[in-house]
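Subject: Protein record for review, amino acid sequence with backbone structure tokens
Category: Structural biology, sequence-to-fold work with a learned token vocabulary.
Format: Residues in single-letter code; tokens as whole numbers, each standing for a residue.
Body of memo: The sequence and its backbone structure tokens, given next.
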Amino acid sequence: MALSFLYLAFTRILQLLLLRRLDSDELAIEIVMLRHEVAVFRRQVVRPALRPTDRALLAGLSQEALADAAGFHRTYVGHLERGEVNPSLLNILKVSAALGIDASKLVSGLAATIGDPRLA
């Protein structure tokens, strides 16, 4: 594993050195080839299923920024993340809009965690 990483790093360094010596036409061809490689990788790699807190972290949102975007107080967002409050449907929609995801993603899987609601 370590040898394959070193080999890959060495080949990439050589490629970078080679790119410095190419003219603009060769660079354009190289860019097209790299774009094709990226497209192939995107087809091969499955996107991970992210939780809403992961999405907020990746988007660079703090609790305060998420609260501002959704129109809440910062402490309310903390209560939501810890499961200390039951949000209304309107608040679920506000949070999903602030995160840029569908509201169904926020509530998917909740039925399995609370059990059968008819028994409550």
Observations:
- Helices lie at 2-19, 24-44, 52-58, 63-70, 74-82, 89-99, 103-107, 110-114.
- The longest helix spans residues 24-44.
